[in-house]
Amino acid sequence: PAKAVLVSLMKGIELGTTKRMSEVIREVAEVPEERVAVVSGPNLAQEIAHRQPAATVVACTDVAVAERLQAICHLPPWFRPYTNPDVIGVELGGAVKNVIALAVGVSAGMGMGDNVSAMLITRGLAEISRLGAALGAD
Fold first, then answer.
1. Distance in angstroms (rounded) separating the CA atoms of residues 21 and 96
2. First vs last C-alpha separation in the chain
3. Which residues pair with 7 in a beta bridge?
4. What residue stretches are annotated with the Glycerol-3-phosphate dehydrogenase NAD-dependent C-terminal domain (predicted)?
5. Residue 105 and residue 99: Cα distance in Å, rounded?
6. 54 DSSP β-pair partners
7. pLDDT tens across 9-21, in order?
8. Phi, psi of 126 (to 5 degrees)
9. Domain boundaries, the chain
10. 3 state SS for the chain
11. Model pTM?
12. Which of 2, 12, 73, 80 is 20 to 30 A (C-alpha) from 52?
């Protein structure tokens, strides 16, 4: 349908083009950016299915679309969606955070303590912010 909203649950960057998933969707479906929303967060399906608390971000350049999706997905008290118009930032954060998680896992495997984990996380977040700013995120 002409006004349908396409929702991306994918985290990653397209190999070869370095396009974000919402860009690929817009290109393939030939729809404007305000009709593509992105859902990203620490959303492990098994934990959500077992009603363990989780939060996510619904991002769309059209704030009304993001808010509509937020209302549809909100399952108190277990699943809390937040909204954000910064599709670029949400997508990059969702994709790049896995690199940080991997580094934290490696450091734990090497016997490093909580200080190293915290350092990797905080410095990693700073790097994600700089990358996002360089690539057009808010």
1. 13
2. 30
3. 37
4. 86-137
5. 10
6. 79
7. 999 999 999 999 9
8. -60, -40
9. 6-134
10. CCCCCEEECCCCECCCCCCEHHHHHHHHHCCCHHHEEEEECCCCHHHHHCCCCEEEEEECCCHHHHHHHHHHHCECCCEEEEEECCHHHHHHHHHHHHHHHHHHHHHHHCCCCHHHHHHHHHHHHHHHHHHHHHCCCC
11. 0.89
12. 12
Could you give the dihedral angle defined by the CA atoms of residues 98, 102, 107 and 110, in that order, rounded to the nearest 10 degrees?
Answer: 170
Q: What is the pLDDT of residue 53?
A: 96
Q: Which residues contact 63 (CB under 8 A, 6 or more apart)?
A: 83, 85
97 is catalytic: yes
Candidate CATH numbers 3.30.230.10, 3.40.50.1980, 3.40.50.720, 3.40.50.300; the one for domain 6-134: 3.40.50.720
